[in-house]
Amino acid sequence: MTGGQTGWIPRRQCLAALSRVLLKGESLTTALAEETRDLPSREAAWSRALAYAAMRWYIRLEAMVDAMLDRPLKPRDAVIRVLLCQGLAEIFHFGTPDHAAVRETAELARTVQRPGAVGLVNALLRRALREREQLAAVMDRNAATRYACPSWLIKGIRDAFPDQWESVLQASTEPAPMTLRVNLARSSREDLAARLEEGGLAAEPHPLVPSALTLAAAVDVQDLPGFAEGLVSVQDAAAQWAALLLAPQPEDRVLDACAAPGGKTGHLLECAGGELDLLALDVDGGRLGRVRENLRRLHYHARLAVGDLSDPEAWWDGRPFDAILLDVPCSATGVIRRHPDIKLLRRQGDIPDLAVRQRELLTAAWGLLRPGGRLLYATCSLLRAENEAVVAAWLGDNPDAQVCDPGFPGGIDREVGRAIALGTRDMDGFYYALLEHEG
Question: Is the pTM of this model over 0.85?
Answer without folding.
Answer: yes
